[in-house]
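Entry 14. Structure prediction run on the chain below.
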Amino acid sequence: MFQYCLFDLDGTLTDPKEGITKSVQHALRYFHIDEPDLKKLEPFIGPPLKDSFMEFYGLTQAQAKKAIEVYRERFTPIGILENKIFPGTVSMLRRAKESGIHLAVASSKPECFVRRILEHFHISPYFEVIVGSELDGTRGTKEEVVEEALRQLGILAMEASQRHELCAMVGDRKFDIQGAKAYGLTGIGVRFGYAAKGELEEEGADYIAETMEELEELLLHGA
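Output returned:
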């Protein structure tokens, strides 16, 4: 059984598709880009927004910065709560905490938004540590977020081999597995999020859970 577990938020604990994709759609309209198919915007769920605007729509760094501002005009009052908690999340967190696992959230989303979402779904008390990015774009990579979460948990100085045995990072995208690898954590991918086909396998996830129930079993009892 793991002693520590870091969780991604979007696509792992909650399903934020509606709020994120509609807010991205809103931002793209500012640049006269009309994208009516919200499914095409699902790749924005997970990675830092700046990177996604630049990669998927060819925006410059300055344009991407502006796009984030416009995105937040809609996301902050509306999109943040166009969100659903995945079935089984509360039970999984409760059982993990009752089993003595130290739980943390490590998300690339701005920390103020992360906290608001966790409080909205009444799951913030399960977590000893909650880490996200900053609104100014600092601590924007998954690796930086994971590092800060480990620091706050008090296990950053632990040997990587020991962390791999005792600490897991759970997420639905390759960025979560990359963050796990960067600090020697066991990387657990979840299939019910927004990874492309084969994404988690190609990134080298140690385990992949098809369902929330499988994830709970992995955390409590191992493979």
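Residues 61-75 form the longest helix (15 residues).
Filed with the rest of this week's runs.
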